[in-house]
Amino acid sequence: MKICLFGGTFDPPHIGHLLIAQTICEAEGFDKIVFIPANKSPNKKVTTKTQCRLEMLKLAVKGNPNFEISDLEIHRGGISYTIDTLLEYEKQLSNQNHEISYLIGSDSLLDFKNWKQPKEIIKKCQVIVAIRPGFRPSDIPSWLLHGIQFANIPRFEISSSNIRKRWIEDKTIRYMVTLPVWEYINRHNLYH
Prior knowledge:
With 192 residues, this protein is α/β, with parallel strands linked by helices. The protein has a single domain (2-156), classed as 3-Layer(aba) Sandwich (Rossmann fold), CATH 3.40.50.620. It is 40% helix and 16% strand. It has helices at 15-28, 50-61, 72-76, 82-93, 106-109, 118-124, 142-145, 160-168, 179-188, and strands at 2-8, 32-37, 67-69, 99-105, 126-130, 148-150. Strands 3-2-1-4-5-6 form a 6-stranded parallel β-sheet, with helices on both faces. Helix 2 (50-61) packs antiparallel against helix 9 and helix 4 runs parallel beside helix 6 (118-124). The longest helix has 14 residues, at 15-28. It is globular and about 45 Å long. The mean pLDDT is 91.
């Protein structure tokens, strides 16, 4: 089975996340995309409660048979490191024959060399990079460029930080998140 893990804070999960995941799923022939919300990101300050982010993600992916959610980083607690997640996910698969990939955005690739055990991550799985606007491969070390695969997908200019900013400024986020996620944000007054 071909599985692609997609980690992130998902604060909130938005249409860009879903479009990239669906497009990667189709382009690479994955059987499933597994969204893994971080408990605590080592690189981002997350103020939205973990349970709220998990609930929004469930609402966002509901109804897509190719999408699944794993809360293993939340259950593990502490800071969410990709290498730890890969090792734990492999244990959960227990000797089954699976091909694992890990999807990141090119914004994350810029800092990838500073992640916990980046070379081990590349050995453990195929890292697939979705290119975001403004990305320049010249900023990436050559050892890293040779160990990853760039996704051949359209670029989407939507970000969680922009959505939170627009919400705070009382601007619409319509068409940036699914309606159930918008309703959840509104009902829980998440980004005030």
